[in-house]
Every structure is written in structure tokens, then in C-alpha cells.
Amino acid sequence: MEQAPHLHETHPQIVKRLKRADGHLKGVIEMIEAGRSCLDIAQQLHAVEKAIAQAKKTLIQDHLDHCLEEVVGPLARDRRRSIDEFKEITKYL
């Protein structure tokens, strides 16, 4: 049985960010092969890491915002607070 695509509104944004990171990473490889300075290489690697980390964070928060809501459904205010706090703390990933 084939599963339907699992798409969210943020997926195109995430793909764009990852493609940019991919381009940066290819550039870093070229920099290393060309013998560029370690400082320049480290700066570019840092940019790649940040882009990937932001893509991951966006994906996880989007998943929690949409998929968790589908599973949990409507809750009483006192029970809802725990879910909202859980979603809020993921901003610090």
C-alpha cells in the first residue's frame, strides 16, 4: 500500500534552505581543495551548519504544530497547557 505524501506548508522553505546549504558545502569542498585559509573554511562550514540546524528546527516545529495537533485533538485548557509548553520549549532546540 502506497502512503500519501507527507507535506507541510514549510517544506518548500526547508528544501530551499537545504539546497542553499548544499551549494555552500560544495563551495567549502572546493575551498579545501584549493588550499584556502582555515579561517575562511571554518566560517563557511559554520554557515552550512547554521542553515542545516535551522532547517531541522523548522521541520520539527512544523511537525509538532500540525501532526501533534491531529493526534491530540481538542483538549481541556488545563491539559492543553502541557502540550503548548512542550511546543514552546522546542524553540530552544
UniProtKB/TrEMBL annotation:
GO MF term set: DNA binding; metal ion binding
Pfam families named in the record: Trns_repr_metal
Biological process per Gene Ontology, one example term: negative regulation of DNA-templated transcription
CDD domains: NreA-like_DUF156
TM segment ranges: none
InterPro entries hit by this protein: Metal_Tscrpt_repr, Metal_Tscrpt_repr_sf
Family in the record: Belongs to the FrmR/RcnR family.
Protein's name in the database: Metal resistance protein
